[in-house]
Design a protein that fits this description.
The chain is of the alpha/beta class. The chain has a single domain, classed as Alpha-Beta Barrel (TIM Barrel), CATH 3.20.20. Helix content is 47%, strand content 10%. It is built from 20 helices and eleven strands. Helix 4 runs antiparallel to helix 13 and helix 5 crosses helix 13. The longest helix has 19 residues. The chain is globular. The mean pLDDT is 94.
């Protein structure tokens, strides 16, 4: 039985409710009056529930789809403006005891090179990332209680935060590791992490168990209930995501929104971020063996409807996607983007030999961070390296209150400009610095509050004079 406030996975992600939702969507996909009613609700910035959003996803009327796209763009701008937060993943270890059939890190893969970074190697990776200009990382590791215990993860976090190289510093470490205990989540919280990220992979329990035949990840309930344990452990910023291509996308979309609704109903805080990765080719994984892949147009529609349905969340598009696809979905609500990513263990400091691979998946966008920053600026976006909310304590319900009232932009906009200025001064190519400086001048004029505008202008001048790390 569906119960949004239950702490049991099969009740807050009810298979019966999802199937009923999909049937309801099919029955109403051409119901213009209902579709207009749903879109009007979305225009009030109240978000949509999984049933309403599923109707829009099923709708294939081109004029209504274009309305959805226009609305998604406007909602993103209302909440977050034109800034795009930049980050990079850092793979610590690819040792893993699970048998996930879609991931090359699975235990039975004997020809992939296994590697675990030492703390000295972690430091080298961090310096390489700092030399690019990154300030925000998402650390990744396979599930292996012997090779990757929580103590190792905590030690790596401590190392990452300790490295100060030239003007570089990692100011926020997000963590993407396997579901764990309340006690371990409390340790991660105390270590000063930003967001705890865990992809569900699929919300269909039967498919989930088949896709995870062995290892601790096989336990659907333990995995699906992880965010509740993270919240109990004091982590109030969590990130959801599914791996599109494993199961039917409409099922996953409904389940993803139900999970967001559950967190909101139980904890008063929905997902800080939602990621939308698609299954990609990897060492011994051929995505064509899975028959639930989605085309680029469907992917774009999903992105737009996540923004409309969960207007406050940050939406992440990684380098799994090509430049062309990223350009297609950026106007539809995306607010975070990875740049110059490596999915190999130790891939930033030293490129891998041709006959060795530790990659989790193929990267589709291979541009440098400067090239990505330059591209964003030319499209009118502000590449942001801001981590101010996390360090100012604007997390969880404090962040959500400001965001839902569309007040967070008052901080995000000037902070984005100041961190972009840091990047331009310390890391940018001459062309990127030139066009970025013009963008900052233009964007300063858009700050409505005279006091904030004056302070931001002063801080930006101070950054040009060599000072760093100003924030609202």
């Amino acid at each position: 039985m569906y119960d949004i406030k239950s702490f049991k996975a099969e009740e807050f992600i009810s298979d019966e409710e999802i199937l009923d939702t999909l049937a309801y969507a099919d029955a109403n996909k051409d119901n213009v009056d209902l579709i207009d009613e749903i879109l009007n609700k979305a225009r009030e910035r109240k978000g949509l529930n999984h049933r309403e959003a599923s109707v829009l996803l099923a709708c294939d009327m081109e004029d209504k789809i274009q309305e959805m796209y226009a609305l998604a763009k406007q909602i993103k701008e209302d909440y977050y403006g034109n800034r795009i937060v930049m980050f990079a993943p850092l793979y610590l270890s690819n040792y893993c005891v699970n048998g996930c059939v879609y991931c090359p890190y699975h235990l039975k893969n004997k020809h992939i090179a296994r590697k675990k970074l030492t703390q000295e190697e972690v430091a080298k990776e961090v310096i390489a990332l700092q030399d690019m200009g990154h300030k925000r990382l998402a650390i990744e590791a396979g599930e292996d209680p012997v090779n990757n215990p929580i103590e190792y993860i905590l030690e790596c976090i401590d190392t990452i935060y300790s490295i100060k190289h030239k003007n570089g510093a990692i100011r926020r470490v997000n963590v993407n590791i396997a579901a764990t205990t309340v006690e371990n989540y409390r340790k991660l919280h105390d270590a000063g992490i930003g967001t705890y990220i865990l992809f569900q992979e699929t919300y269909n329990k039967k498919s989930y168990e088949e896709l995870h035949p062995t290892g601790p990840k096989h336990d659907y309930a333990y995995h699906t209930e992880a965010m509740d344990r993270a919240m109990e452990g004091g982590i109030d910023d969590v990130g959801l995501g599914v791996l599109f291509g494993l199961e039917l996308y409409r099922y996953e979309f409904a389940g993803l929104l139900m999970h967001a609704e559950h967190l909101e109903a139980v904890h008063g805080v929905g997902p800080h971020t939602i990621s939308v990765p698609r299954l990609k080719r990897a060492d011994d994984i051929d995505p064509d063996t899975f028959d639930n892949g989605i085309d680029d147009d469907t992917f774009a529609k999903i992105c737009a409807l996540i923004r409309i349905s969960v207007p406050y969340t940050g939406m992440i598009i990684s380098t799994r996607e090509s430049q062309a696809v990223r350009e297609k979905v950026l106007p539809l609500g995306v607010s975070q983007l990875s740049g110059a990513s490596r999915t190999s263990v130790g891939g930033y400091a030293e490129p891998e030999a041709e006959d060795v691979t530790t990659e989790q998946f193929d990267v589709s966008d291979n541009r440098t961070l400067d090239e990505v920053v330059n591209w964003l600026i030319k499209m009118g976006h502000i590449p942001s390296f801001c981590t101010a909310c996390y360090r100012e304590g604007r997390t969880g319900d404090r962040f959500m209150t400001l965001c839902k009232n569309m007040q967070i932009l008052n901080c995000c906009h000037p902070n984005a400009l100041m961190t972009l200025k840091e990047y331009l001064e310390d890391y940018a190519s001459p062309e990127t610095k030139e066009i970025g400086s013009k963008l900052i001048e233009q964007e300063l004029e858009k700050i409505p509050n005279p006091k904030v505008k004056a302070t931001a202008t002063e801080y930006i001048h101070n950054i040009a004079d060599g000072k760093r790390d100003f924030r609202f």
